[in-house]
Design goal:
Order of helices and strands: H
Strand content: under 5%
Protein name: ATPase
Organism: Candidatus Fusicatenibacter merdavium
Structural class: mainly alpha
Number of domains: 1
Helix content: over 70%
Keywords: Coiled coil
Distance between the termini: 135 Å
Length: 103
């Protein structure tokens, strides 16, 4: 009977040791998981920030190009209108005077 009790005690001790070891391993695995998760999050955050900066820089470049093109176009149009005015302002004045006097 003592040998059965001793065997059961040994089995119980072994089971407790296995459970304790499993709990210790669980803690280690949880720490490893948390570290890997943190590293992944940091890497993803860095990649996301870098990509957003690329997109922002590209958008600023394109916006600048559009504004420059529009500015050049506007300046050209203004020069064209000034030239036309310089060449035809007398004709425009006569036409305005003619319309006023016809009324």
């Amino acid at each position: 009977m003592d040998s059965i009790v001793n065997k059961l005690t040994e089995i119980e001790d072994a089971a407790e040791a296995i459970v304790k070891h499993a709990e210790d391993q669980k803690e280690v695995l949880n720490r490893e998981y948390d570290e890997k998760k943190k590293a992944f999050d940091e890497e993803l955050d860095a990649k996301t920030t870098a990509r957003l900066n690329e997109i922002r820089a590209d958008l600023e470049k394109k916006t600048s190009q559009i504004l420059e093109t529009q500015s050049d176009s506007s300046a050209g149009l203004i020069r064209s209108l000034q030239k036309e005015y310089e060449e035809k302002h007398t004709e425009y004045a006569r036409e305005i005077l003619k319309r006023i006097t016809e009324v």
